[in-house]
UniProtKB/TrEMBL annotation:
Protein name: Uncharacterized protein
Organism: Tegillarca granosa (Malaysian cockle)
Length: 147
């Protein structure tokens, strides 16, 4: 069996921005879903949406990748920007599984999540979430050999 060619072999910094997940039709809030599970679903959905829009040859040579779900990107008006909350970082094992299922096994190696931010905007006096999304930063040392 031929070995899969990595899609992002030189990328050592990856930023993932889900956009406004309130507008994702396929993202359904599940009872007892943890923030980590929701974040995992957003990362997977963003990678799935972003990858087909990128030139694979360009990704092969890139050292940084800003992966954004452009269909749901919105600029928050200054008066609606509230406090940003830093959430739990996704476990490395779960992130590796997501990367392997959306890219290749080699692309999923040696990543270390650095931080994740969950943001939301509420409609005043009604408690309805108008906008919600995640931004995640992960790094890897591409020079490090797998042990």
């Amino acid at each position: 069996m031929a070995e899969e060619i990595p899609i992002i072999p030189k990328v050592n910094t990856l930023h993932i921005h889900s956009g406004n997940i309130v507008n994702w039709n396929r993202l359904k809030r599940k009872p007892n879903q943890t923030p980590t599970e929701e974040l995992a679903e957003c990362v997977s959905g963003t990678l799935t949406a972003c990858l087909p829009t990128k030139d694979r040859n360009e990704l092969q040579a890139s050292t940084e990748w800003d992966c954004k779900h452009t269909k749901f990107m919105e600029t928050l008006p200054a008066d609606e920007r509230g406090d940003l909350k830093v959430t739990d970082i996704m476990p490395v094992k779960r992130f590796k599984e997501i990367m392997a299922s959306n890219l290749t096994e080699k692309d999923s190696e040696r990543w270390e999540p650095q931080w994740a931010i969950r943001y939301s905007v509420l409609v005043k006096c009604r408690g309805i979430i108008k906008t919600k999304g995640y931004i995640l930063k992960v790094d890897r040392d591409i020079k490090q050999r797998k042990v």
